[in-house]
Amino acid sequence: MSQPRPPLSLEQVLGFHKTLSNWGRFGPKDQLGTINLITPEKRLAAAKGVRSGRTVSCARPLPTQPSVENPNPVQHHMIGTCTEGWGGDYFAIAPHGFATSHIDALCHIFHEGKLYNGYPIERVTAHGALDLGIHELKDGVVSRGVLLDVPAARGVPFLEAGEPIFPDDLERCEARASLRVEPGDVLLVRTGRWALREARGPWDPRQSAAGLDASCLPWLHERGVAVLGCDGVSDVVPSRIEGQNLPIHTVAIVAMGLHLIDNLDLEALAAACSEEKRSEFLLTLAPLVLFRGTASPVNPIALF
C-alpha cells in the first residue's frame, strides 16, 4: 500500500479545467485532442523500435455474462448455425462501464454544459454526437506504447481495490523501465486488476477500484500523453475528491482532449515486457467506425 496522502480539494480539481486546458490548442474545430501529438515522425520512430515481431493483445474478451462487474453484458445471439446451414452472429454492446475494453470518444463526458474544445453539450443528440464522435478515429491510432506497471514497481502482484496511484509512482515505474513518457505516447497503466480478481474473485469496481489519483492530471498534461489506457477505468474509485466521482475522466476528456481506454487486460503485456526486457512497443488501436458514437470496443495490439 502507498502511504496515505491528503486528497486534492474540489476547487483544485476544478481549476485544472483552466490550467490544463487544450481548448483551441489544435484549432477551433479540432476533433482529435491530444492525438494530434502523434505526428508522422512519432509513428515512424515507434515503428523503427520494432525488434522481435512479437504481438500481444491488450483486450478482454467481450463480456457476455452478467456479473457484479458487468450489469449490461454484451448480447451475443446466433442467427446462423448448423440448422440454417451457415454461421452468423448478432452483437449488441453498451461499451461504457467497468467490463468491456473500450475507448471513449471525446463526446463522452460533459462539464458545465461543454464538451472538449468548447463544443456545447447539445451536440450530443438522439442521433449521436455531431462533434467529437468515435468515427473521428477512423484512421486508427499508431504510436509508441509505454507500459507503467505500478504493482511491479511497488514489489506486489497487484494493487488493492481503491488504492490510488500518484505521480511519483509513475516516475518510479519510468525509472524501473529505464524510459521516460514523452509527447505522443500511448500510456498504459497496470494496476493488476485481473490478477487481484484471479486471487480473490470478482467485486463491484463501481464501489472500489485502483487507479490514478487526480494529482496525476498535471503530470499527464506535462508529459504530453496522447492516449491513456488502464486495466481499470484510469480513475481511482472512490475518487478521494468530494463532489467529483471521476476526475481523471472529466478533466482528461473535457479539458485536455485525452482519449481514455478502459478495462484493458494488461497481464499478458506485462509478462511480455518482462520477457522482452523492455516496456515500450509499437501500439496500434483500430476503433470501429461507428458514426457519431460515444465509444468503441477496442483490441489494442502491442508489437515488440
Let me know the largest β-sheet: 9 strands, mixed
Number of helices: 8
Counting structural domains, the number is 1
Cα shape: globular
Strand content: 15-25%
Radius of gyration: 19 Å
Report the CATH architecture: 3-Layer(bba) Sandwich
Mean pLDDT across residues: 97
Brief digest:
The protein is an alpha/beta fold. The protein has helices spanning 10-19, 40-48, 150-154, 167-177, 193-200, 217-223, 247-256, 267-276; strands at 55-57, 75-80, 88-92, 102-104, 124-125, 128-129, 141-149, 164-165, 186-190, 211-212, 227-230, 259-262, 280-285, 295-297, 301-303.
Helices and strands in order:
Layout: H1 10-19, H2 40-48, E1 55-57, E2 75-80, E3 88-92, E4 102-104, E5 124-125, E6 128-129, E7 141-149, H3 150-154, E8 164-165, H4 167-177, E9 186-190, H5 193-200, E10 211-212, H6 217-223, E11 227-230, H7 247-256, E12 259-262, H8 267-276, E13 280-285, E14 295-297, E15 301-303
Parallel strand pairs: 7-9, 8-10, 9-11, 11-12
Antiparallel strand pairs: 1-15, 2-3, 4-12, 4-14, 5-6, 7-13, 13-15
Helix pairs in contact: 1-7
